[in-house]
Amino acid sequence: MMSSIKKLTQKRLFLPIFSMILVMLINVVYDIAMGGAPLGFFMISIKNGVLYGRLIDILNRGSEIAILAIGMTLVVSASGGTDISVGSVMSLYAGVCCLILAGYGNVNVQQYAHPLLAGIGVGLLVTLICGIFNGFLVAYMNIQPMVATLILWSAGRAIGLLLCNSQIVYVRVPSFQKLGGYCSIIPTPIIVAAVCVAIAAVILHFTALGTYIQSVGINKRASRIAGFNSAKIILMCYAICGLCAGLAGMVATSRIYSADTNNIGLNMELDAILSVALGGNSLGGGKFSLAGSIIGAYTIQAITTTLYALGVSSAQAPVFKAIVVIIIVVIQAEPAKAFFKKLTKKSGKEAARA
Amino acid sequence: MKKKKINSNNLLLLITIVLFFVMYAAGCAVYADKGFTRLQTFLNILINNAGLICVTAGMTCVMLTGGIDISVGSLIAMDCMILAVGIEQWGWSSPVLMFLILAIGIVFGIMQGFCIAYLDIQPFIVTMAGMFFARGMTAVICKEQVSIVSDKIFTMLSSFKISLPFGGYINKKGIMQYPYLRVTVVVALIVVLAIYLMLKYTRFGRSLYAVGGNQQSATLMGLDVKKTKMKAYILSSFLTSIGGICYCLNTMAGTTTQATGLEMDAISSAVIGGTLLTGGVGNVIGSLFGVLINGTISTLVKTNGKLISSWSNIVTAVLLCFFIVLQSVFALVKERKK
Hints:
Strand order of the largest sheet of chain B: 1-6
Largest sheet of chain B: 2 strands, antiparallel
Structural class of chain B: mainly alpha
Helix content of chain A: 55-70%
Mean pLDDT of chain B: 85
Number of domains of chain A: 1
Strand content of chain B: under 5%
CATH topology of chain B: ABC transporter involved in vitamin B12 uptake, BtuC
Distance between the termini of chain A: 19 Å
CATH architecture of chain B: Orthogonal Bundle
Mean pLDDT of chain A: 85
Number of domains of chain B: 1
Largest sheet of chain A: 3 strands, mixed
Structural class of chain A: mainly alpha
Oligomer: heterodimer
Number of helices of chain B: 14
Strand content of chain A: under 5%
CATH class of chain B: Mainly Alpha
Radius of gyration of chain B: 21 Å
Number of helices of chain A: 16
Shape of chain A: globular
Radius of gyration of chain A: 22 Å
Largest interface: A-B, 46 and 47 residues
Strand order of the largest sheet of chain A: 3-4-7
C-alpha cells in the first residue's frame, strides 16, 4: 500500500494532476454547501447556440496561459531561466496588429485599413523578432535570462502604447472578433490553444528537438562538446517563446476586439512561469514535461475561476496564488524533501519498534 | 599613496556617473528656458525618487549575493495601505504604524530569506510569491484608495521643507525662492551612506561580496553562506519598508495599484549603476546614480511635454540594454585575458 502510494507520488505528472483534482473537489464541496447540484462544475450545456459551463469557461479563459506555457516550458528547460517579457510582448502584438488594422491615430474603426492576415502576420513577425532578440542576448551574449528579458519587459508594453498613442484602439469587425469568439459552438481560443499544443507535441515527439533542448538544459558545455550547437538551440527556444506570446496576444486581442495595451498580458508572465512550476518541471532547466505545463496552466485558470466563484475579488486573488506557489515550491525543494524523508523514516522505525 | 588602477568594474561606475552628468547637461542646454537649470529641478528628482533610492540600496545588497528581490514594489503598496488605513480607519498614530511597518518588513524578509537560503528555492520564485502575497494583502486590507489627511505628525513630515541657504532665484512675483529638500531625501541619503559604509568596512558587507563572487570559496573560507544570504533578504525588505514610508510621504495615499513595476525600476537602476546580476560586483553609489539617471530621463520627458510618458520606459530599456551588453563584453574580455 505504502509503496504504491510512493510510486504514484514519484510520477512526473502527479503534482499537476493532484492539484487539478484538488481544485475540482473544492468546487464540488462548494456546490454542495451552497445547495447546488453536486456535479454542477462538470455540467456542459448549450445556451444561445454555444457551449456553456464552468469547465468550458476555464478551458476558454485558460487558452492564453496554455499557449504561453508551451514557449515558457522550452525556455525554462533549455536555459534554466525564465522569459519575463511574454506579457509585454503580448501587449506589443496588440499594438502592432491593431495599428495595421485600424491605421495610425484611429481609435474606433468599423472596417479594416489593411487585410486581417496582414495585421496578424506582421504582429506575429514582430513577436518572433522579440523572441530572437531575447534569445540572442541569452545565448550569444551570455546574459542571465531574467535580465535579458527585463529589457523587453519594460520596452514592449511602452512601444505598444506608443503605437496606439496611449489610447485603446477598437476594431469592430466581426471577422476580427472571430478568433476570440466562437467557432460554431466551440469557443475559438480553445481550438487555437489545442492546435498550438498539438503542433508542439508532434514536433517534440517526432523529432529529436526535445532531447536536444533537455541535453542543453542539463549541461550546456557538455552538449556543445557532444556536437550540439547549444547557443542556436537556446536561441530557437526563445524565438518559439516569442511566437507563442504573439499567438497568446492574438487570442487576447480578439477576445476584447481592441488593443488595450495597458492591460493585455498584464502579469501573464507570472502565470506562465507558475504553470511551468506547477507542471512539475524544475525551474533550473533540464528535463521537462509539456503535458505537465499545460495541465498546470489550466489548473491555474481553474484556481482563479474557483476563487472568483467563491467571492474573492480579482485584486485579492493573488494572496491565494502566492500560498499555492509557496506550497508547491517548498514540496519540490531538495532540503524539504530530505527533511520529510527523515521524518517518515523515523516514524517508520518507531512503528517497527512498536 | 597607492595608485589605484581603473579596472572594468570601476570603469562601469565611471561610465554611469559621466552619463548622468552628460544627460543632465544636455537637459540644461535644451530646456534652459523651462527652468531645467534650476537647482530645484535636480532636488525634485531626489524628492520624487527618495523611496526608490532606499529600495535600490537594498536591491543592490541582494544582487551582490547573486539573487533578486521582485517583491519590493508590492511590499511598498502594502506598507502605504497599512499606513493609510491605520491612520484613517483604525485611528492609530503614525509613529506606531511606522514601527509596525518596519517590523513587518523584517518578518517578510525572514520568511523570504529562509525559503531562499535554507530551503534552496530560486530567489525569483520565492520573491514572486512574496509579490503576489503583498499585492493581494493590499486589497484584503482595503479595496479602495485611502488618502491620509488626519494625522498631524505624518502630514507635517510630508510637507516639511528643508530650505537650502543658497541657489535661490527670484520668481515672477519678485520673491526670493530658495531650493528645498524633503525629510525623505535626508532619510534616503542616510540609507545610501550607511549601506556604502557597511559594504566597505563591515564583516557582513565584505561577506556579501564574497558569497556573490564565488559561493564555494566563500564556504571554504568559513563564511556562513546561508546566513549571509538570508540577512541580505532581510536587509532588502527592511530598506524597502523604509522606502515604503518615504514613498507614502510623497503620495499621501494607499491604493492597490501603487508602485506597480517599481521592482523593475530598482533592478534596472542597480544594473545601470554597475551591479552585476551574477553577484559579487557592485556599488551602492552606482545604484544611486542609476536612480538619478532614471529620474532624469522621466523629468526630461515630462519637461518636453509633447512626448508620451512611455518614452521614458523605452529610453530606460535602451540604456539598460546598453549597460547589460557592456557588462557582458567586459566579462568576455576578462575571460580572454585569462
